[in-house]
């Protein structure tokens, strides 16, 4: 093992080293920053009126469902206004469903949304709900 001589210090460097020791660093909890950022995002999305799901992937999935349900049909095109109305309805349903699931998780004194909350929500909505058909 080789020992090395410490670097020569000047008078200024010893003062800065001493002043660094007297300085206190403030530790910031990253979870608090992340939570504040998430809450800021939620406030932003509540105020916004634009659609949350991108239009092209939604159009692709709608066309795929159409070909699965009606394979012999020649309908391959959908009007943009019809797609927009369908996307608006789908997003409204999903948002309402997740809001109800979050209420169930809060009732269970939990912060995290779990799959059991979603299963219970589907059962509570009953057989008349569109997702249970």
UniProtKB/TrEMBL annotation:
Belongs to the histone H3 family. Residues 35-124 form the Core Histone H2A/H2B/H3 domain. InterPro entries: H2A/H2B/H3, Histone-fold, Histone_H3/CENP-A. CDD domains: HFD_H3 (cd22911). It comes from the Eukaryota. GO terms for molecular function: DNA binding; protein heterodimerization activity; structural constituent of chromatin. Transmembrane segments: none annotated. Pfam families: Histone (PF00125). One of its GO terms (cellular component) is nucleosome. This is Histone H3.3-like isoform X2.
